[in-house]
Specification:
This protein is α/β, with parallel strands linked by helices and 598 residues long. The chain has a domain of 149 residues: Roll (Diaminopimelate Epimerase, Chain A, domain 1). It is globular and about 80 Å long.
Length: 598
């Protein structure tokens, strides 16, 4: 995988709309997308240049994987008017060739449907893109606090964002991968600067470390109480904050100190994030847990014609106020200018690797300041969770629920049961986001209630060793994101990257879903490994089904959108250990080429 500065690589579910305030809820430079648009317009065939029934483009000369169980592979595919005209043998498809048809020889490369992102935070990728890269190796250089400090010093000297924003952000530090095995503190960050507010964001997005200037800006001092669902860590033996903030303490502080951007700046950041997703073959992208400002930015980008991929936004149900946009023209199952509001998001707990996820059994090693027996904590009471889930289901809104710990998953299940008739709940396809400690006995309940498990097998690579040795212990760690148990129940699952918590690498997701090997190369949960075909379905047709879009996306069939990806090799036949090294060569949205690898 090509390394890119400012891009993260892994962790667990976040609350990115809370991390990136409405001012910072987008991402990408206008120049980058402008180049892509120019390239696309130059490459796209002129609409109407062929006769009715004739193809504008024909793809052939390599494996074409349809992700349709009834016809898994074909020899050729024809496109017209942004739709798939036909799939079949070379002779069948070549019969649709006209004088203006563009013939695309795959030269042995593999064509698949565009990847459908089942869960991430489009807006948060923008914040990540302008931050100092605090990632540990191999995706960054920060293996110790001293290296992290040096990265921040260099960033303060060279980054234009420090001057324009009046503060400095760093993204992606991981206490489990630092030599000191701890979070950086205010003292560590004060050694970088006492005058410039510095916020170092944990890779999970659920923690942050602030220097003294940032704490002051956030109004946090010795007398500041812990907020509900959050912790302000203190210096040992005193009430003085040590700079590390957990969950709601972190999110609330960001709401106070984040600078505001103009709408144009926000749209530019959104474009930058969009281009990154295209690099990894995504033609449909999620902005999970968007705040009202993020929704407004997305609508402005859509109406300006600056969305190239399809974006599905899920506003935070706790931040949406009256939620006028849930009654507006962008809410529903159809896209308007490549945008739709698909439902709402609710968060019930935190991060397992950060040890704030809500478990029924204690953590193997309690986190800083906690006693043996500590099990994490929830974000809402049962009454609050029940009310929000019932609100969504009664309105017919699809609801995505962040629940990493099995106690939080129990709470979600209870809330769906309490919402009313099961058929009404099933009709909205509630989605369990992450479900990393999903128990075997909970899965039949998901099936009964129609809850879709969107799991996080990618976590096994980045955090599997940490889960086994510190977070959960061996037995529970073996069963994180238990895709095997889900398949045994005859259910579909989707597999996500949760960007910016992880780089939106479709092929890293594919590899982890198939292999489940850790950073150290150890296998984690053999019974949950799946075939490359199933792993691809979890990122294409099953993800489209999660969105109620399976009739127009997710597989290569006549009449569906011509959302296509060309891969460097065939995931079904390449050596299994090479899956993570496959490359996206081209990403095509409705017949238009939007990204080509250098």
């Amino acid at each position: 995988m090509k390394k890119r500065q400012f891009l993260t690589t892994a962790a667990s579910g976040t609350a990115w709309a809370a991390v990136a305030s409405s001012a910072l809820l987008s991402a990408c430079t206008t120049a980058a997308v402008g180049e892509s648009q120019t390239q696309s317009q130059a490459q796209a065939p002129a609409q109407g240049a062929t006769r009715p029934g004739q193809a504008e483009q024909i793809y052939f000369g390599g494996p074409i994987l349809t992700m349709n169980d009834a016809q898994r592979q074909v020899q050729a595919l024809a496109v017209a008017g942004g739709l798939i005209l036909a799939v079949g043998t070379r002779d069948e498809i070549f019969a649709l060739r006209g004088t203006e048809t563009r013939m695309v020889d795959l030269q042995g490369h593999t064509l698949i449907p565009g990847f459908v992102d089942p869960h991430s935070h489009l807006g948060g990728v923008g914040l990540q893109a302008i931050s100092a890269n605090l990632l540990p190796p191999p995706d960054g250089r920060n293996a110790s606090i001293a290296q992290l400090q040096q990265t921040l010093r260099e960033y303060l000297k060279t980054s234009p964002e420090v001057k324009s924003l009046g503060m400095a952000f760093g993204f992606g530090y991981d206490d489990s991968q630092l030599k000191e095995q701890r979070h950086p503190t205010r003292a560590d960050l004060d050694a970088v600067s006492k005058t410039v507010p510095i916020v170092a964001i944990h890779q999970s997005g659920h923690f942050g470390a602030l220097n003294s200037a940032a704490l002051a800006k956030a109004g946090i001092g010795a007398a500041t109480p812990n907020p509900e669902g959050g912790v302000i860590r203190r210096k040992k033996g005193s009430n003085q904050p040590d700079g590390v903030l957990e969950e709601n303490a972190f999110f609330h502080s960001l709401a106070k100190i984040m600078p505001r951007l103009t709408q144009e700046q926000s749209i530019q950041w959104l474009e930058k994030a969009q281009q990154l997703y295209l690099q990894f073959g995504y033609t449909t992208v999620q902005d999970g847990r968007a705040d009202p400002g993020a929704v407004a930015t997305a609508i402005a980008a859509a109406e300006a014609g600056r969305l190239l991929v399809d974006v599905v936004s899920y506003p935070d149900i706790l931040q949406m106020g009256e939620g006028a946009f849930m009654r507006g023209p962008y809410y529903g199952r159809s896209y308007k200018h490549n945008l739709r509001i698909g439902g709402v998001k609710l968060t019930l707990d935190g991060s397992p690797q950060g040890k704030t996820a809500w478990l029924t059994q204690p953590y193997l090693v309690p986190p800083h300041g906690q006693k043996p027996g500590y099990r994490g904590y929830g974000a809402l009471s049962d009454a609050q969770a029940n009310a929000q889930v019932a609100k969504a289901i009664s309105n017919g809104w699809q609801i995505l629920v962040h629940a990493n710990g099995d106690a939080a998953i129990d709470q979600f299940i209870r809330a769906v049961r309490a919402s009313g008739p099961v058929d009404k709940a099933r009709a909205v396809r509630p989605v369990l986001i992450h479900g990393q400690t999903l128990r075997r006995d909970q899965i039949p309940q998901l099936k009964e209630l129609g809850i879709v498990p969107s799991l996080f097998p990618m976590h096994t690579f980045y955090w599997g060793d940490w889960h086994r040795d510190s977070v959960l212990g061996n037995e529970r760690a073996q069963n994180i994101s238990p895709t095997g148990w889900v398949l045994q129940q005859g259910m579909r699952f989707t597999s996500h990257h949760d960007a910016p918590v992880a780089l939106p690498s479709s092929l890293r997701v594919l590899d982890a879903t198939v292999h489940r090997t850790t950073r150290s190369g150890k296998l984690l949960g053999a019974e949950h490994r799946v075939s490359p075909w199933v792993a691809l379905q979890a990122q294409t047709i099953w993800s489209a089904w999660q969105y109620f879009e399976e009739e127009r996306k997710g597989s290569l069939e006549a009449g569906k959108l011509a959302d296509l990806v060309i891969l460097s090799d065939n995931p079904l036949t390449v050596e299994r250990h090479q899956l993570a090294h496959l490359k996206v060569l081209e990403t095509i949205k409705q017949g238009r080429s939007l990204y080509r690898a250098p």
